[in-house]
Amino acid sequence: MPESFLVIDDSKLLHQMYRLIFSQGDLAGSTVHYALDGREGYGLLAAHPDLTLVLLDLNMPGMNGLEVLARREAERLHPHVPIALVTTESSEDDEARGRAVGAWDYLRKPFQPSDIQRLVRGAREQRRSRGAA
Amino acid sequence: MKPGENPFGDLLQDYIVECLPLAEQVGDAFVELERRWRDGEPGEDLLASVKGRLHTIKGNSGMMGLTPARDVAHALEDACGFLGRAPESRGEGAAALLVAGGGLLVDLIGTASPDADGGPASDFVERVRKYLGLAPGAAAESDRRQGERRSRPRAGDGGAASNVVRIDFRRLDALLEVLGEGLIQHSALVDVYRRLMRRMGACEELGELDQAVLSLQKTLTRLESTLMETRLLPVSTVFGRFPRMVRDVAHAEGKKVRLEVTGGDTSLDKAVLDRLSEPLLHLLSNAVAHGLELPEDRVKAGKPPEGLLRLQAAAVSGRVAIRVSDDGRGLDEAAIRAKAEALGMDTRAADTAQLHGLVFVAGLSTADRVTTLSGRGMGLDVAADVIHALGGTIEVESRPGKGTAFTLSLPVTLAIVRSLIVEVDRERFAVPLSHVAETVRAEPEAIRQINNQGVTQWRGDLIHVADAGAVLGTREPSGAQRPFYVVMTAGAKRRGLLVDRLIGHQDIVVKGLDPALGRPAVVSGTTILGDGQVACILDVVRILDGAAHAN
Q1: Which pTM value belongs to this model?
Q2: CB < 8 Å to A109, chain B
Q3: How far apart are CA B145 and CA B110, in angstroms?
Q4: Cβ-contact B488, B431 below 8 angstroms
Q5: How far, in Å, are B172, B383, B384, B533 from residue B526 at the CA level?
Q6: A113 and B157 in contact by Cβ < 8 A?
Q7: Which value does ipTM take for this structure?
Q8: B56 vs A: CB within 8 A
Q9: Which residues of chain A does B74 touch, with a Cβ-Cβ cutoff of 8 Å?
Q10: Which one of B136, B195, B392, B464 is most buried, counting C-beta atoms within 10 A?
Q11: Regarding the domain delimited by A4-132, which CATH topology (the fold level of the hierarchy) does it fall under?
């Protein structure tokens, strides 16, 4: 079964960038779901328990990234799905708050395709070790 | 940074599409903040509203490797953060800083290029740093980190999945040239078909040729409309710079102004838009400088101290209407009359509309005092000339004490003009169909001579009819009357033009005039016809204007 990912970001430009990244190398052919806000993203997360990785933007109007994480934590929704919080020059503070509500890793803008590839490798690693356990 | 260095370089257009409106909203919010702070209002909601937008701009600009825009957004974010925490610092100085930064951000994003000069951006960042009292070098550190990130080698770059591509506009112009050649060849085919038809009469093969020529025409028309669409841009791409400019002029003039912009999504050909910017800039600054009163005078006149300036765009029956209106003092008819008379014009019989129309006449348009808008001293006459050269019209309405409105009507595109081709003294001329009301066979007895001018009844009105030879200078008017006249219109003006032959309708591709030849008063450009002949395109607006002045 092909891998699937979820991108939650209010910027369509960022969606285009992710499309570019997910069309290259061994990521080509994977399924990527896109949400433009936290609420929509949370719905997609609920609908797809098999996601390899979620890329979640921190700053979004309405429900922001931290709120998505907090709700996921509170509702124990697919706790095995790794969620990387994507920030723009975030403070250590933001990162600490993210970790407190279950962010699996961080990605700072500006990022490169290789940064996503690295995160995906980490997520696959975790998935394998969980499968083995 | 070279375009190839950023993995997302192909998304530059998507970046502009997303971030330019955000930057414009930020810029508008800053202009509004300045007004509110002057009136002693806190403007918390506006400060909060720009935060998310600046953050998005910062993040996206960073992703695109557009460091100047990223740094300016970052600096503005810092400044807004500080002003959010320190209400006592809000005031004129802070607002001026924000407005300057907002304008810079719009410029940087609108002209986004990886090779852009970072000078203005770093100057601004330095200004903010000084304003915030930060030690220089704090941001330099993060710049260095950025540099290291960027220099890392990457794999798998390229392979765009975007639906948007960037095209040099000159290539679209080149495509248009090719289309123009296609149109010329098509009309050559039509010409041959007609001659064959005359010689041989109807037959099956000619019927098929007719069909083939017709479908070629349909294809060319589709190609034309598709190509035209690619050339269209929303007028907001030009309007975006106006709030800041209006604010600057208001500042310099000691006026209070609120600018309302509507219809920014109306589309125009880029070639039209490019040339429209200056005249609009002039109309707006003119409205602020001369139309709107000083706050104290407005209060005396029973108006709110803040003047209202409206910029409205809308698509109206195949053209674009743009209206610049103010609620100021209106045109000063006595002053216009006095100036016109000083120039030797007789204005005794002029009605209000004619008097208002004189503001577009050279020598009458400029206000008495020297304008403070350095380098923007284009007169209303020049603004009107530019609009006419675009095949547009401009009209003014004004009511004393209530305000002035300039209404522009513009063609959506410049490049291809449906025209009526006429022949005058064996030369061909193109009259844009948008200015042709009717073509009429000129019965000799229907045209009477009054004061050495031909006059005829047309749709219940009396209109002047002039000999094309005299107007176009192909020869002196002679006694013999030409057999047809074309009723030309521009705005409310109408006039008949007597010609020798009506050749037919044709799509013509407009070519500019050779600048070395200067600009003859009655011609707006040239085109090449189906038989390879060059034809001049009549500048109907000028011809009608010239007639009005001569009267």
Answers
A1: 0.51
A2: 59, 62-63
A3: 27
A4: yes
A5: 20, 22, 21, 10
A6: yes
A7: 0.89
A8: yes
A9: 89
A10: B392
A11: Rossmann fold (3.40.50)
